[in-house]
Amino acid sequence: MALSSLLLCSDAAAVQVLSRIFQELGIEVAICADPHTAQTQLGERQFNALVLDCQDESAAMALLKWVKTSATNRNCIVIALVNGGNAVQEIFRKGANFVLYKPLSRERALHSLHAARALIRQERRISNRVPVHTSASIAYGGKEDIAATILELNDTGLGVRTSDAPPVGGKVYFQFTLPGQDSEVRLAGEVMWRDASGRVGIRFQNVPQASRRILQQWLKNRASTQPASDSAVITYEDDKSTRLSAGLGLLSASAPDRRNLSRRPCRLGAEIYRAQDNVPQRCFLTDISSGGCYVETTDPFPTGSELLLVVRTHDFKLSIAGKVQSVHRAFGMGIRFTLTSDRERQQVLRLINCAEEQDRLVR
Predict the structure, then answer these.
(1) Number of separate domains in the chain
(2) Residue 26 is part of a domain; what is its CATH number?
(3) pLDDT tens digits, 300-338
(4) Which domain does 220 fall in, by range?
(5) Burial grade of 159 (CB within 10 A; 0-12, 13-18, 19 or more)
(6) Domain end: 124, 155, 177, which one?
(7) Which one of 104, 124, 144 terminates a domain?
(8) What torsion, rounded to 10 degrees, do the Cα atoms 208, 210, 213, 219 define?
(9) Tell me, what DSSP letter sits at residue 313?
(10) Strands 317-328, 332-337: parallel, antiparallel or unpaired by DSSP?
(11) CATH number of the domain that 232 lies in?
């Protein structure tokens, strides 16, 4: 069955950008300019996604409330178009899954609509999600040992609640012990969504073999002991913000989230040299921006360490100095570049372009 969307927007520039992206993603798009026409269409047929322009916020919220109680489209993914004058957190609370800021950037719109398509497909998939209530310690950015509670778990991700939610798209590092287990699980994941209540959805990215065995055995034991009704698929009628959704992403109103979108995911082999040391440590570059990068390594340097990063691609070699800004034990470290010349800045931009091309090919 083809995916379909309804675009309620009277902004011609935004309609043009979004229509082209939907077409590229293989999603059928119907366009209307007023809420009354949109409500009529939503009542007559089912859509997988609704793009809702919040220029008239009260009318948009009234339609959103109606959609969430309708029999036909209460499960559709809602993408809100907002500007600086909108109450974004309230829009999230009313049921929006994503927000896009106007004037639209094709790059950010594409990022969010990719995530929306992945979420739609995730919702159509059968996937058991096991409820759990256990404490965890998480770390991200420059923050360590943040308390969190794991709410839900499967073999691809987990859902947590924390008072200090990491930004969407950022990398998070976990340590926790599952009920009935003695061994600690350590893993890394990417933040796919979060809401105003502090609930966060994580997709696993780096799970050591020992931790993977613990997870798989625990999930297997739960599947064999719990009643069939407990392992039923969680539907959209359940509390959506506690669900695990490997494909869900949000663009939140916070500055850290919007800044994070400038970072490019990648998977590039690299070498790092600590200052005054000629012995290389091999690692992987997993994201990069014009100001810094993140490298995965089981033996990160202490915070504040000065180092040299060397990255080789098929076309060029980049050597640049940096300083360790954050450390996640046994996983990796965040590095801030020390750029001293225009040539070095151009090299970094060239590497970012390389990461963009790699990401495009993966998609």
Answers:
(1) 3
(2) 3.40.50.2300
(3) 888 899 999 998 877 778 888 999 988 776 567 889 999
(4) 130-258
(5) buried
(6) 124
(7) 124
(8) -80
(9) -
(10) antiparallel
(11) 2.40.10.220
Residue 330 tokens read as 């046994």
Closest alpha carbon to 272 in 205, 348, 323: 323
Tell me the residue type at 129: R
- The label of the residue with tokens 């009260």 reads 58
Residue 88 CB neighbour total at 10 angstroms:
21
* Concatenated DSSP letters of 46-115: --SEEEEE-SSHHHHHHHHHHHHH-TTTTTSEEEEEE-TTS-HHHHHHHT-SEEEESSPPHHHHHHHHHH
Least confident range of 84-93, 99-108, 266-275, 322-331:
322-331
| 283 and 356 inside one domain | yes
CA of 295: how far to CAs of 36, 75, 240, 241, 319, in Å? 51, 38, 33, 30, 15
| pLDDT value of residue 63 | 94
Q: Are strands 143-153 and 306-312 parallel, antiparallel or unpaired?
A: unpaired
The phi and psi torsions of 59 (rounded to 5 degrees) equal: -65, -40
Tell me: do 136 and 114 sit in the same domain: no
Please tell me whether residues 90 and 10 are part of one structural domain. Answer: yes
Output the six-digit token pair for 133: 């209530």
